[in-house]
Write a structure and sequence with these properties.
By secondary structure, the chain is of the alpha+beta class. The protein has 9 helices and 19 strands. The longest helix has 20 residues.
Length: 374
Amino acid sequence: MTTALDYAEKLIAAPSVTPATGLVFDVMEELLKPMGFEVHRFIKGEAPDGPVENLFAIRRGPAGSKHFSFAGHLDVVPPGDGWTSAPFAPERRGDLLYGRGAVDMKGSIACMIAAVADIPADAGTVSFIITGDEEGPAVYGTRALIDFMREHNMEPDLCLVGEPTSVNQLGDMMKIGRRGSVNIWIEVEGTQGHVAYPHLADNPLPKLVAILAELDALVLDEGTDWFQPSNLEITDLEVGNPAHNVIPAKATARLSIRFNDTHSGTSLSDKVAAIAEKHGGAAKPIISGEPFLTPPGEFSQIIADAVKAETGIDPEPSTTGGTSDARFLRAVCPVIEFGLCNATMHKRDEAVAIADLDVLARIYARIGKAVLSA
């Protein structure tokens, strides 16, 4: 019998640094087709944000049955140097499986594949929403998959994203929402000149300092029942002035705001823009995701019951952490994230506990069966 561990090794052995195309999707297709899945693959986009390969696979249940989706990404971050073993040569050492993507998130996808083998085909419709660009710009990834699903009338009723949400042990946390994210570039134009003749120049730096001081003093909110307070962080300053006796012509800064559902990307962008303009600057925002919440209810209870049955743990519903592709999928249907322990994700010698793969596969199977029968 093929196990989640076997599937994980096959996926890890296919290098897929973001944006991913080709071999790793060949492997995914080869694993799903014998299970009765109809596999659709397509490539979107051009450099610098593409090309990106995406995969949507569906095993159709009886007419009128529920449709449940597993979602995730096959792309991984660059492995970097200094690994004990080759990052794309999966290696079992002791109780762990090592390899880039073992946790984030080829391990979870392997568990999803193992789970569907235990979900009866007549229980309902099961699908996979799999992108090759979650770790990168995410321009041509899950959003393109959503367009595909809508075009072919294949939207699921519920979706589980297999991001590594567990913290200290498998099952201790699921994500029922995420904060939004906006990055904003602030630019202040001046007039270059000699520092000894300031009346002939216009120094942009005091203006930028005033903008940043006002922004840094903002208290955006105090948090909500489910979300921590929003935070604004200054992440970069740039003048590019190599001379000590020259007033620069321009100064720029970058902000990153992670925000809860008392705000929107647009409302925060407008607030920053107004402060920048007041001091003579301009702001250019890029909104990468809006906040979302899947309120605790039947779906989260199904997940909690499955986790409890296999681990004895009551998972904490949380909205902490960064963003994920759930920020896009929430526009299609209710979505919750649950997966492996995240301690080694993006790190050198990324590894997953082999025992956790079997347990997570059983949890996913329980969730799928319960959702489709509810």
